[in-house]
Amino acid sequence: MEKAKRTEISSLGEFGLIDRITQNIELHHTSSIKGIGDDAAIIEAEKTQVVTTDILVEGIHFDLVYTPLKHLGYKSVIVNLSDVYAMNAIPKQILVSIAISNRFSVEAIEEIYEGVKLACKKYKVDLVGGDTTASQKGLIINVVAIGEQERTKIVQRNTAKEGDLLCVSGDLGAAYMGLTLLQREKQVFLNAPEASIDLAGNDFIVGKQLKPEARKDVIEFFAEHQIIPTSMIDVSDGLSSEIMHLCKQSNVGCQLNEEHVPIAEETYNKALEFGIDPINCALSGGEDYELLFTIAAEDRTKVKQHPDISIIGEILDANLGVKLFTKGGNYHDIISLGWNSLKDED
Amino acid sequence: MEKAKRTEISSLGEFGLIDRITQNIELHHTSSIKGIGDDAAIIEAEKTQVVTTDILVEGIHFDLVYTPLKHLGYKSVIVNLSDVYAMNAIPKQILVSIAISNRFSVEAIEEIYEGVKLACKKYKVDLVGGDTTASQKGLIINVVAIGEQERTKIVQRNTAKEGDLLCVSGDLGAAYMGLTLLQREKQVFLNAPEASIDLAGNDFIVGKQLKPEARKDVIEFFAEHQIIPTSMIDVSDGLSSEIMHLCKQSNVGCQLNEEHVPIAEETYNKALEFGIDPINCALSGGEDYELLFTIAAEDRTKVKQHPDISIIGEILDANLGVKLFTKGGNYHDIISLGWNSLKDED
């Protein structure tokens, strides 16, 4: 096997590296007046702006043992675009900051940016700025995403109303099962490096973990069908955590029906194989990047036209609490058990 | 001495921490529609937007041995505001992402945010979002600053013209001498912990390093006097590096007159004490956060009304190169020797 080329970052320096990374970057939106190359990017806002930022840290949010760098670059953009879509807005620009130790080569950074650029192309966003610096240890990626929408169509978390229907796009828990599988295979590998990693037949859950997508299509569906959700949030920390945010901030209660929570067959079977109750993958898993939203009851028939949206519950008066109605016919309080890097660390 | 209270971050978790940090945050600008608490901040742009981001990494950009956390929070905002001012724009909003190891207590993070909030108050910017997460090692702060200005008044780097005057605000090299002193005193302390740290009489240079300010006043002066610089950049990596960016991107040459480069007496004397040629502190030091800009020759008298702006050179045809005219009457090529974290690391 040919040895991969390794160019030391120090041989280029910050500006040389930036020149190399930003080759061939094209700006597509008329709102992107000036991209990389000045003290700041210049953006001509055409509608109301939404801005979000997320920081991803090696060893906390990703493990490079099983995360290809290109996928990591892609995912770091997706998690931010998902936040923009969760406001019912259209992402237009991103800025990407990377801090890296000299363990990484220029080629490695180029791989990360290949993923970033791929996400830009697929989701039609312009890479307009960022920062590149050294780190003492590990890789840190901070992405900022800027989107826009007419003010009256921007959807927040705190506006769900009693009687609204609770809906979610796609299916839940797959990314968590993908992570669980990857972590087991990593352990197998660490215990016996000669053992072969067996991910065969698990493309679906592994793909959901390593290369998630954001629900651009759902936001486009809303626009086409004149649907404005009454509230919305993206599912990044697990369904239970997001439902709690939505209900708490809207000051409402909720009944979530277990039987309607969408879980893919692959996720379901893998959960059972690992001895996990599949509903817990959906409730506490996280990293689904699906959209959790509420709609007025009269929009039920409109939403039903989308094959990939499930109506999973109903918004109730706050006094009725936030409940899971199980397949067995019982009610349980939903508590926020989502992924939380600050609580997990020790 | 009373022992400082230490609350573990893990006892609060991400959302508890965010609740605690974001207490008492008020939004002042009518353009800040929605701040912290949703998937994204909502901003109603009133003019053309400029957006910049900078990532600060422990051990690369700051050393907590001599950097108080409150100062660090303050400075992390200032370096971004300086980039907004360098576009001749007015900063309005910031987003702050922090990744921290569990070596830090909740109280430590609150100190960082105290500095962030102090900068927000002084510079009239709204803290509208961010992200808080664990890190495996050390502290990383990423700040995004958003500003605005009428499109025709936004100033870029690439528009300097032959015959323009090269100007700089304030004085240069002080932050570098402050850093040099702090690093020496740290070494003294590490070699002999019982020795006392002696920073007496060095408030000026130490202050410039630990608690820099951004030149809001200069941008306000431009507005009052109807001055629009023909090009502008902030001095973060040293004068020589910024002059090179400005000349290269504008495709012009330049003569910089050493005798007009502003260096404070404290900086000058400390440089000599350390055996450093003072002009080199200005050329290669960095972290001054002053504004380097060019003006049309007819604006000379207007600029002269500001006591803290120096005319340090003239823009020439590109063929004449980028030259330093020394006090001794010699010409030297200016080469970019600025601070560069990616070249420094080893």
Please give a structural write-up.
2 copies of one chain form a homodimer. Chain A is of the alpha+beta class and 346 residues long. Chain A has 2 domains: 9-153, PurM-like, N-terminal domain (60s Ribosomal Protein L30, Chain: A); 165-344, Phosphoribosyl-aminoimidazole Synthetase, Chain A, domain 2 (Alpha-Beta Complex), CATH 3.90.650. Chain A is built from 11 helices and 13 strands. The first copy, chain A, has helices at 13-21, 69-85, 106-123, 174-191, 203-210, 216-224, 239-250, 265-273, 278-284, 300-303, 341-344, and strands spanning 32-34, 41-43, 48-57, 90-100, 126-134, 139-149, 165-169, 231-235, 253-257, 290-295, 309-316, 322-325, 331-333. In chain A, the strands form 3 sheets. A 7-stranded mixed beta sheet of chain A has the order 8-10-7-11-9-12-13, sandwiched between helices. Chain A has a 4-stranded mixed beta sheet with strand order 3-6-4-5. In chain A, strands 1-2 form a two-stranded antiparallel sheet. The longest helix of chain A is centred in the N-terminal third of the chain and has 18 residues, at 106-123. Chain A is globular, with a radius of gyration of 21 Å. The model of chain A has no long low-confidence stretch (mean pLDDT 93). The interface between A and B is large, with 78 and 78 residues. Strand 2 (41-43) of chain A pairs antiparallel with strand 3 of chain B.
